[in-house]
Amino acid sequence: MTVLEHTGYRPAPPPGWQPRTDPAPLLPEPEPYRLLGTGAEPATPGLWRELYRRLVLGRRYNEQATALTRQGRLAVYPSSAGQEACQTAAALALRPDDWLFPSYRDTLAVVARGVDPVQALSLLRGDRHSGYDPHRHRVAPLCTPLATQLPHAVGLAHAARLCGDEVAALALVGDGGTSEGDFHEALNFAAVWQAPVVFLVQNNGFAISVPLAKQTAAPSIAHKAVGYGMPGRLVDGNDAPAVHQVLTEALDRARSGGGPALIEALTYRLDAHTNADDASRYRDEEEVAAWRGHDPLRLLEEELRRRGELTDELVAEARTAAESFAAGLRERMHADPRPDAASLFDHVYAEPTAQLRAQHSRLRAELAAEAEAASAPGGGTGPGRDAA
Amino acid sequence: MTAAPASRTSPDAPAPAGTRPVTMAQALNRALRDALAADPAVHILGEDVGTLGGVFRITDGLAAEFGDRRCTDTPLAEAGILGTAVGMAMYGLRPVVEMQFDAFAYPAFEQLVSHVSRMRNRTSGALPLPLTVRIPYGGGIGGVEHHSDSSEAYYMATPGLHVVTPATVADAYGLLRRAIASDDPVVFLEPKRLYWSKAPLDLDQPPAALPFGRAAVPRTGTSATLITYGPSLPVCLEAAEAARATEGWELEVIDLRTLVPFDDDTVCDSVRRTGRAVVVHEATGFAGPGAEIAARVTEGCFHYLQAPVLRVTGFDIPYPPPMLEGHHLPGVDRILDAVARLQWEADWIPGTEGRPHA
């Protein structure tokens, strides 16, 4: 008995007071949600074959991008090999008016959304910070500071709702990113505002080298949703149809005013953090091998085989499309990008300040002097001249 | 766009008909109200900005008039406030964010530096962020720790932001309207100890939005130039008055109004005429705004200078407890001391350079 109760004081509940929401409906399922191998049928005919074609392409894209780092054509590539189901299903679950908020490991999702892969890779190539028009495909720029894109997704979704538009935002983040303060603030704002936003955590087991056990003591990342008052769902992130279904449901719910959701997709980063990382320093090959047995592409292949849908025609068609995609990417990435130094001052402000105009003209003079030196007889060794 | 002439406001000017004494807080409130009325894209976000009207009452009455969808009390999380404002601006809205106090804006620093300032640049102009971050700043109100910081140097050092700070009632209105209309992000620093300063103004015929990058010259003079902004402007005007009375010096006073973009022309024109300059601000001196201003004046006016450019600033200490802040803040005497050291007899003594003495 509390002291107040002891005194017999029984305050009336304040106006508008409601009992706290029963947390039970918000809790994630005890086991990751799966469709493959359960006897479930595709939500729409042909959906799983379409996911298969896209997973084959996604895997080939990851291999090609990794190869481009070895050829010096990408400054760095954070591979999403093993996470193709999450990224592909994420892009497919979105409607044209929805927005995608990717992080730097999500170029496959960006490409699957329809963005030109060369433009999607600009950040990692290093010729510009963001190579695509965010409005064209409704894809925010790749975000590098972890979880800081999540409040942007909340704000955009909130704005869409204020404007009366049926638009949802899908924000991607990794397991490491869930430790950031921005993750907390974004989920809290989303729930308080009932913003039409879905958070997809690709839990790939590692934040570079740090395993999930050192990241959180929560029962699961999906459980964190309950604390914000939104539903959490746990899904097998390597089961592409399951991820697609869970995301589709959450996005539909968000669009129709049902509020945000947190989805944790259990997956695995088969490659190192980036081409510059050595994963053997922090994980065993046996663990990687075990996850290769739960490879998203392999799981879907087996299911389609069981169903008699993995025809030679489908396999050949998927492989040809992936090879053609990779060849096109390879060829275009072997052209030297020529970012224009004079463009450095173009988009700092809507109108450059007097100080920036002065700096711009100094740079133009330097460039002109270099060009003159390069074109002079016996020239070509001046500063700024490409040594190659 | 036609550039307006630098304004010369004088407290002695007769009040035109229709005007009445208005506080800076009221002028800011009216600017927000008029912006909300003029453009449905404008949305105000912050802690306590709704029902309460803000802890300084700058948003007083706005939620009642425009509804809580236009003037929204947010959860208490500054990174979340600014981060969601980014998303709202991406969707075409024009958020005006209130940070409750200067030091409470620091949790939003990453959003400001890593996204707000760079989104236009990152996306080659595809995603401009027309948002305003209002921050009450500066000391002199007896605030306990974390309530009196002058954080402008951090924002000035971040390309992509405009940094604006009014010092007069009329400028508060004109600059805030301009900030909200800007297609670039603006850090709008409100000198909180001037919130209750008054000047005659007709709020039903308010001043036009002021262009950025144009300093004001509220007092002309020939002896030396005091370069200042925000909360230090009234102190400099008082010092200039005292300098005339005691020494016969005619000090010109420049109110920068916008720190970014910086008005090199007005500042250098003045210093080339006077040959002497003192920069005055509350922020700490080391690597503070005055360091940049002194460097710019030296580069632009070297052959006209009769003395080194001096600075009168807050000490290089964490902002002191309120019972000691009077020793820290630039005051009239310290400004006059600095002016006195401007080599009037060309007897510069190394080692006594412009450090404020307690």
Automatic annotation (TrEMBL), chain A:
Q: Which keywords describe this protein according to UniProt?
A: Oxidoreductase, Pyruvate, Thiamine pyrophosphate
- Domain of life, per lineage: Bacteria
Q: Which GO terms describe its biological process?
A: branched-chain amino acid catabolic process
CDD domains in UniProt: TPP_E1_PDC_ADC_BCADC
- Provide ranges: composition bias, Low complexity: 367-376
Gene Ontology molecular-function annotations = magnesium ion binding; oxidoreductase activity, acting on the aldehyde or oxo group of donors, disulfide as acceptor
Q: Which InterPro entries match?
A: Alpha-ketoacid_DH_E1_comp, DH_E1, PdhA/BkdA, THDP-binding
Q: Where is the composition biased (Gly residues)?
A: 377-388
Q: Where is this region: Disordered?
A: 1-28, 367-388
Q: Which cofactor(s) are needed, names only?
A: thiamine diphosphate
Q: Which residues form the Dehydrogenase E1 component domain?
A: 55-319
Q: Which PANTHER family match?
A: 2-OXOISOVALERATE DEHYDROGENASE SUBUNIT ALPHA, MITOCHONDRIAL
Q: What is this protein called?
A: Pyruvate dehydrogenase E1 component alpha subunit
Q: Which organism is it from?
A: Streptomyces aidingensis
Where is the organism placed in the taxonomic lineage, from the top? Bacteria, Bacillati, Actinomycetota, Actinomycetes, Kitasatosporales
Automatic annotation (TrEMBL), chain B:
Asked if the record carries the keyword Oxidoreductase, the reply is yes
Q: Report the domain of life of the source organism.
A: Bacteria
- UniProt xrefs under CDD domains: TPP_PYR_E1-PDHc-beta_like
- A GO biological process held by the record: branched-chain amino acid catabolic process
Q: Per its UniProt entry, what is the enzyme's top EC class, as one word?
A: oxidoreductase
Region of interest: Disordered: 1-20
Question: Any idea which GO molecular function terms this record carries?
Answer: branched-chain 2-oxo acid dehydrogenase activity; magnesium ion binding
Annotated Gene3D superfamilies = 3.40.50.920, 3.40.50.970
* Pfam families assigned to the protein according to its UniProt record, in alphabetical order: Transket_pyr, Transketolase_C
Record keywords: Oxidoreductase, Pyruvate
Which ranges carry the Transketolase-like pyrimidine-binding domain?
22-197
InterPro entries of this UniProt entry? THDP-binding, Transketo_C/PFOR_II, Transketolase-like_Pyr-bd, Transketolase_C
Q: Which SUPFAM superfamilies match?
A: Thiamin diphosphate-binding fold (THDP-binding), TK C-terminal domain-like
State which Enzyme Commission number(s) the record gives.
1.2.4.4
Q: Which cofactor does it need?
A: thiamine diphosphate
**Can you say what this protein is called?**
3-methyl-2-oxobutanoate dehydrogenase (2-methylpropanoyl-transferring)
